[in-house]
TrEMBL record:
The keyword Glycoprotein applies. It is a single-pass type I membrane protein. Residues 1-23 form the signal peptide. The lineage of its organism: Eukaryota, Viridiplantae, Streptophyta, Embryophyta, Tracheophyta. Belongs to the RLP family. InterPro entries: Leu-rich_rpt (IPR001611), LRR_dom_sf (IPR032675), LRR_N_plant-typ (IPR013210), RLP23-like (IPR046956). GO terms for cellular component: membrane. This is Leucine-rich repeat-containing N-terminal plant-type domain-containing protein. The chain crosses the membrane at residues 426-450. It holds the Pfam family LRR_8. Keywords: Glycoprotein, Leucine-rich repeat, Membrane, Receptor, Repeat, Signal, Transmembrane, Transmembrane helix. SUPFAM superfamilies: L domain-like.
């Protein structure tokens, strides 16, 4: 009991010391906020230009699987902006380096003189899935000299892509301006961005030719190229494709590998067209190399050089005007997981060499003019009818029209020749039947005559005919004598 009483003052002193230390630590951390007052003021001025409207991010959950919410409601003056929703700060300097306001229900015109452009430290800016009321992409965006990721997709931007984005040449790795209302030609000046790894221009109003690039190093780091659902036309530029060196060897240098595993990994929705429907396969990192030119007006033959992009996981050239045969060089795309060449004007047979693509899990060759037998073996044994429908002269599994053992389509017997054959057989049967019946009848008459003499009915019939002929002869002679 006495020992316990002696411990009480010690416990009390220890508790008091811990509480005092905690209060000092808390007051010290409160006094030294990470976020600078300047950055907090700039950010609050930026969001003051917009209202909150849930319909502004209505597509967010459908396309990204994330529910929208107003991140900026947590932004309060006098609080540390590094703890605001959507903001990440540098642990050392306290500068804002990541601003993610995707799916934040922001609604309103985007001001070209926005205070946001004063945050030079930004490395990642994501404004996707908001509604900026057909604002033009501000030219001032080129002031973000440290920017690595720029995502303006699904945000109702219009106009052209500002050339000032080329000022981000030292750092920019991801540019996603897909699903807007941008009307422009292909921005060739993007080739000046040597670190660009993801370029997404899909679902806009881009138009015209995609010509060959000038420099051999143009777009050499690209791993994801998505130009789908625009109005590009003409043949595919061979030299442009040859420059996509990262699609040949995705981890050709250590810097790329380090980026791929860094904190700024970028998720990109892979979309393929199956039976006319856009289906999201999965979200993948940029190491997932893909080449998507679907839903344009590209024409002529598919260049054989595409077979050099051996690191491709996905190739989608569907809904274009490609003609000619499927290039045999596609057999070199050994990492390919999905291939969509549907709804073109491709002719000829499916190359047997494609059976070697053992990673292939999605194949769509429907609605072309392909002929012959479908290759068999490996992954080709797993594809259903929908992979080939709309090719009326294709045969073999899984279609109902089969091929013979020599790999040739089995033709059903012609109905015309079948009827001829039946008529021929019927005619000979009648002839043989007639010969047979006559032969038997003759034998029967001979037998009866030999054994019984001439049958009465036979004699009567035969003699009657002879007597009639004799009477006719006599009458003719009598008439002749009377004339004389």
């Amino acid at each position: 009991m006495g020992f316990s009483l002696k411990l009480c003052p010690l416990v009390f002193l220890l508790s008091f010391f811990l509480a005092f230390s905690f209060s000092l630590s808390f007051s010290s951390s409160s006094a030294t906020q990470l976020c600078s007052h300047e950055h907090a003021t700039v950010l609050l001025q930026f969001i003051s230009a917009f209202s909150i409207n849930k319909s502004a991010s209505s597509e967010c959950e459908y396309f990204s699987g994330v529910k929208s919410y107003s991140k900026t409601l947590s932004w309060k003056e006098g609080t540390d902006c590094c703890f605001w929703n959507g903001i990440t700060c540098d642990n050392v300097t306290g500068n804002v380096i990541d601003l993610d306001l995707s799916c934040s229900n922001l609604y309103g015109s985007f001001p070209s003189n926005s205070s946001l452009f004063l945050t030079k430290s930004l490395q990642r800016l994501n404004l996707s899935f908001n509604d900026f009321k057909l604002s033009k992409i501000p030219r001032e965006i080129g002031q973000f000299v440290s920017l690595k990721h720029l995502d303006l997709s699904y945000s109702e931007f219009s106009g052209q892509v500002p050339n000032e984005i080329s000022h981000l040449s030292n750092m920019l790795e991801v540019l996603d301006i897909g699903n807007n209302n941008i009307k422009d030609t292909f921005p060739y000046w993007l080739e000046s961005l040597p670190k660009l790894q993801v370029l997404i221009l899909r679902s806009n109003k881009f138009q015209g030719f995609v010509r060959d690039t000038k420099a051999n190093s143009s777009f050499s780091k690209l791993r994801v190229l998505d130009l789908s659902n625009n109005d590009f036309f003409g043949p595919l530029p061979v030299h442009f494709i040859e420059n996509l060196k990262a699609m040949v060897n995705p981890l050709e240098d250590d810097n790329s590998a380090q980026y791929m595993g860094g904190s700024f990994s970028y998720e990109y929705s892979i979309v393929v067209i199956l039976k006319g429907l856009s289906i999201e396969l999965e979200k993948v990192l940029t190491v997932f190399t893909s080449f998507d030119l679907s839903k344009n007006k590209f024409a002529r033959e598919i260049p054989k050089v595409i077979g050099k992009l051996s690191s491709l996981k996905g190739l989608n050239l569907s809904y274009n005007n490609f003609s000619g045969q499927i290039p045999h060089s596609l057999q070199n795309l050994t990492n390919l997981e999905w291939l969509d060449l549907s709804s073109n004007e491709l002719v000829g047979e499916i190359p047997q060499e494609l059976v070697s693509l053992t990673s292939l899990s999605v194949l769509n060759l429907s609605n072309n003019q392909l002929v012959g037998c479908i290759p068999q073996g490996n992954q080709f044994n797993t594809f259903g009818n929908s992979s080939y429908e709309g090719n009326l002269r294709l045969y073999g599994f899984p279609l109902t029209k089969s091929c013979d053992g020599n790999g040739l389509p089995q033709q059903p017997p012609s109905s015309f020749h079948g009827k001829d054959h039946e008529l021929w057989e019927f005619g000979w049967r009648v002839v043989l039947l007639g010969y047979g019946c006559g032969f038997v009848f003759g034998l029967l008459i001979g037998y009866l005559t030999f054994h019984n003499g001439e049958p009465k009915w036979f004699v009567t019939l035969f003699n009657g005919q002879q007597n009639q002929r004799a009477r006719n002869v006599r009458k003719a002679r009598t008439r002749a004598q009377r004339r004389n």
